[in-house]
């Protein structure tokens, strides 16, 4: 636990260092004028007569931009800014919260925030990476709501699928085009590369199998590492993940009767749903090796950018070092 | 029913109750034997009767999941079956549902307030909140009608219940659309389910269920008199107000217990009385136990179906009942004359 606290503290220091160091060049970049255009992951090109200075959007995307010094004016998501762990280390003053549960977006407040662009993302519906064009982007209640919001400002959509390393590149490209300084990006990338190497070394030396899961009264949903960009990235770095047997994209769902069949040595637990104490009260899950070992750590689904991922990879490396193979 | 021609009525009803008891016991056995973890009958038997030597995982499935879930299903079935019969008896309305007094809406709002204001997420605390919320809503409905000309009269109570429910539901929406934790808790709670509830939940609701059943038993004779109409009941020496208050308290306690344990489970309270009435007649001395037994069979039966159709996952009993209950109720409604109450 002490190691974890130290890791978190170190990360926080790193983040503060980054953002304060980069404030001057960003301010200069934001004033630069001239036409701006960006082709998003749905193939849609957004063109404006100036670089967007006011960015609003889905919290998991704006958080990543904020880590590169692009401060959003408004954010919506499926958690409030206050409770979303991804906002940790981000100075949230001046960010208007325009939605705190999924699909509930205060259009009036968002209009008042006068964004130049709105950033969002989209998740594929199968392992091949298919995007359903009839569905709205992630975070919008329905197509009608998205159409209405697109009238406030053009929507730029990133695809949260496939290889996490590619998604990080795209997020960074968007941030750079919005004025993130080369220095900020380079510093972040350096820290990311170091964290990546560290995780790779730790994973190679560790026999621990990780199980990333979400649980509620209906049962336990175990993530399929290949279907989550970030988990796939860690898996590519050598982290071993428990592969759930139930069929389905992204999640393999076990009823509580079947929860005893979940393998793995160390649990990465989603920040919503049942937490450790509630999980251990379920007699079937309590029989699993991971539950008995008590090796539980947070799965905070950090943003896909160099800063957030470097921080989480450092944490994950620490979790692996602390844990022992038990199954 | 040809059997009624041969067997005297005095023996027929106990016979039917015996058959319904057997059916409920079969439902209990099915609930122990079948689940989303496909165990053989032999494995279940060995685990049940040689629990000391049973493998840990089987022990956890039978004693940790299926037995608590079956107990919860029995409680919910009894409560909703009896509450539905009381409700229809008091309102003399064949379409009355125990949720009509605002009980479900009150419990739902209390669960959400528990999360939003007090940060309570543990299951046992949620139960306490749900019961208290249900009681408050019911008392509020009673209070509104008490100001009217005939206190505790069923029709004004149903109207007041609908109004209070609408208000409470609006408040619930207001909170869950602004707070994610409250939404999560509400989302899990609002689909009636027997899954994933710790054993503490059954223990926590048992006193409320027992008190409700006791009041229902005390209300039996009054219900028969009331079914002849308020004037006739008064003529027979019935204190209508007392009878109504006892009945209302029983309905509230039973529905609150069931709702707190499993979330709102529809159709049981509505359908069970219609199944029971053609079997044992309209006398509540027979109707109430028949409803309790049919409630058990229906809830456990639907739960077993839900466990079998979801692959390694499951479908919640509330959804199974909603899907099966709709057409089933239409069939019942078409076959029986609903006015014959």
Description:
The complex is a heterodimer of chains A (327) and B (341). Chain A has two domains: 33-180, Rossmann fold, CATH 3.40.50.1980; 187-322, 3-Layer(aba) Sandwich (Rossmann fold). In chain A, 40% of the residues lie in helices and 18% in strands. Chain A has helices at residues 2-31, 59-67, 107-112, 143-150, 164-177, 182-205, 229-236, 276-280, 283-286, 289-293, 306-322; strands spanning 36-39, 45-48, 55-58, 74-76, 96-99, 117-122, 155-159, 209-216, 219-223, 240-241, 251-254, 266-270, 296-299. Helices cover 76% and strands 0% of the residues of chain B. Chain B has helices spanning 3-6, 9-33, 41-49, 56-91, 103-116, 123-146, 154-176, 180-190, 199-218, 220-226, 230-235, 240-262, 268-280, 284-308, 317-335. Chain B contains 15 helices and no strands. The model of chain B has no long low-confidence stretch (mean pLDDT 84). Classes of the chains: A alpha/beta (327), B mainly alpha (341). Chains A and B meet through strand 11 and helix 9 of A and helix 4 and helix 8 of B.
Q: Characteristics of this structure?
A:
heterodimer, A: 327 residues, alpha/beta, Rossmann fold, 2 domains, six-stranded mixed beta sheet, five-stranded parallel beta sheet, 11 helices, 18% strand, globular, B: 341 residues, mainly alpha, ABC transporter involved in vitamin B12 uptake, BtuC, 76% helix, 0% strand
